[in-house]
Task: structure prediction
Amino acid sequence: MPQLSPFSASADLLLRLLQSSPEMPQSAAHLARLEPGLLDYLQTQAADLHYRAVGEARDLLDVALELLEQPLSTEHQRRLIERADDELASAQRWGELAANARFCLQRPELAQQLAGDARAAGSDDAAGDGGKRSRGRERSAG
Result:
C-alpha cells in the first residue's frame, strides 16, 4: 500500500468534504489539519456552494409563491416548499463549513488548540474514563 504524503492526505480529506453533504459541518478542530492553501480553497468553494443553495431556495420559494394563485395540488406545493427547505439547510451547512475554514485560516493557533483538545477528548473517551483524566489535570493545574 503506497504511503500518502501529508499533502495528499489533506487533499483527500478536502475532496471528501466537498463531495459529501454532511449532516454536521466539519468542525474547526477537524479542518485545522488542512494546509492553508487547501483551507482557502475549501472556504472559497463552500462559500460559493452556500450562495448557490441560497439562490436555489429563493427561486423555489418564488415559484411556490407564484403558484399559490394557481389551482395546484397541496401535495405539489408542499414538495416545492420542502425542496426550498432542503436547499436552505444545505446553504446553512455550507455556510458553517466556510466559516470554520475561514476561522482556521485567520486563527491557526486557536484552530490547532481546538484540534488538540478534540484529540485529547477522544483519547479520554477511548480510555473509558469519560474525561475524568483531563478534568483531574485541570484541577491540579489550577
User: Anything to note?
Assistant: Residues 34 and 60 are 35 Å apart (CA to CA). Confidence is low (pLDDT under 50) at residues 1-6, 130-142.
